[in-house]
Model the fold of this input.
Amino acid sequence: MKEFRSYSALVVGSGCAGLAAAVRLAESGVRAALITEGLTLGTSRNTGSDKQTYYKLSLSGSEPDSPRAMADDLFAGGAVDGDCALSEAALSARAFNDLVTLGVPFPHNAYGEYVGYKTDHDPRARATSAGPLTSRFMTEALEDRLHELPVDVFDGFRVLEILKSGNRAVGVLALELKTGDVSAFRAPDVILATGGPAGIYADSVYPESQTGSTSLAILAGAQLSNLTEWQFGLSSVSPRWNVSGTYFQVLPRLFSRGADGVEREFLADMIKDPGEALGILFLKGYQWPFDSGRVMNGSSAVDVAVYRETVLFGREVFLDYTKNPFTLEAIDPELLPDEARDYLTGAEAFLPTPWERLEKMNAPALEFYEKSGVDLRREPLRIALCVQHHNGGIAVDGRWRTTVRGLYAVGECAGTHGVRRPGGSALNAGQVGALRAAEYISVRGGDPCPDEEFSAIVEKAESAYASLCEKDAPAADADAMIENARRRMSDSAGAIRDPEKMRAALLAAEKDEKTVRAASFKGAEGIAKYSALLDVLVTQRAVLTAMIDYAARSGGSRGSALYTDPDGELREGLEEIFRMSPENEKLRTSVQTVEMRGDRFALWWRPVRKIPPEDGFFENVWRGFRENKNT
Ligand SMILES: Cc1cc2nc3c(=O)[nH]c(=O)nc-3n(C[C@H](O)[C@H](O)[C@H](O)COP(=O)(O)OP(=O)(O)OC[C@H]3O[C@@H](n4cnc5c(N)ncnc54)[C@H](O)[C@@H]3O)c2cc1C
Done:
């Protein structure tokens, strides 16, 4: 009999979502273990932004709000399932209040109102923030709580595979990174909280430590939704940080530099009038994510211009805070559109250079880079058009169950957001998904796989890894292959998606996967690299398959993606790759679904699940709650 550890539930990953899931399970009396590559790794712990946002039901002011109104707004993002939207709305206040109780410093006013502000795609002021590091504070508070509870934590373990019996998850196989031991964990319920599949792209503002493991679910046969939908935006390359808000509103000089050292202010290629160019630079500040609807006449022309320089022309792009754009001695207020002029006047920021304006308007933004070794008073800041968030992911129902029985997905690895989402709704969705899955497991948790059967499943899975190390085949250069695959993806299927380039990238990923599966990998390090490389290639194949199908359906450009369309419109001064047509809004009522079957992917579109009708008769709700918590 193979040795293994046994629990009632497992959580994989220790970002905001995984920690919340483990806490909720333990608080409901479920015997759980949390398995993570690293407690201090992942997006939540290592990222932030100017004002990192948390989206929740309004808890202040006199404007009315309700779970249904909030659900309607989430649902309006397009390709969103209504049951998930309703739960994300209904439980947002509880999830938020629990974080406050755990000590996350969300600010309230003198009377205890959690005053909000408007974020993108937010018709009300539902957003709040604990500052630039909201998600880090959340992980710290949740981890403190976790340590008070009877949860076994396996830190430094990379999960290699979901173990299954038929279509049921029965546990996981994990590699202990320090010792190289491969061991099995048995549980009838497994919650994946592995974060976004950040590792498939080269140009990225995800922290380096986040690569994701969506392929665990893909290879287990789980369905995936909305894989085409991501968020991209302009970010500095080192350190990785969004250059949103004041970083653009202070009107820095934007230039590129080639291998020959020659500098070019390339925005002028697309926008001849300096006043218009300054207006668009200013707008880029608060319209941070790349939005294909703003390319022809709006601020996303800046993102396209940066992409063009870096990807098409192979030049590096910089923000320069030491000089004004277009060799202007000073910014003439008369050149600016009213909005920008009023803002800079109000902030008393008509100062000689961009860095002085930044210091006046947002000194911490300047200090942030100083602490990271970049002095914006002296040196330019390298930027690129980077991936930041996956709106799609593993398909889940209203209890965050995947299509594999006993397997759940919460946090960014779950695909509950559609084409557009309000800023801050990712952090809310992670907390709510964790709560929903844990509550369901606490009432309806499954039975463990019998010892003998589980042992046989483990033996088979382990022997596959043993033969990987023992086989007599050439080794693969995993690091180089990962780097190439990521570059290929950013160049063909990032914010700008040319179907021809995507088809070539898909063929290359398929070829690479064959090479990897035939190669040998030695020792613990080899197994970890094999798993990371396979994850990148399998996930890329799924995402590219989805994107190619979307383009073939003439979905048009939508959200944070521009699809090249030879029959579309072209902004003056741009190359054919940027020819685009508007979004086909009919597709907003459908969810594109992908599933691995054998070695290939099946793909279809299904209608979105509508927001469930009101269920407000108290006595009935109470009875169901007494019986089984309405699970
Ligand atoms: C620059 C930036 C700014 C952002 N700003 C906002 C914002 O303002 N508002 C908002 O709502 N969202 C924002 N987001 C998105 C949000 O931060 C993430 O969606 C969220 O933190 C993801 O949390 P998570 O728990 O799902 O995953 P993560 O925090 O990424 O955690 C994943 C965990 O899984 C572990 N793991 C992965 N694979 C394995 C494996 N095989 N075995 C074991 N462990 C594994 C990782 O090590 C890690 O611990 C931002 C993201 C970025 C990059």
Summary: The two ends are 36 Å apart (CA to CA). DSSP finds 19 helices and 23 strands in the chain. The longest strand covers residues 381-390. The chain has a mean pLDDT of 95.
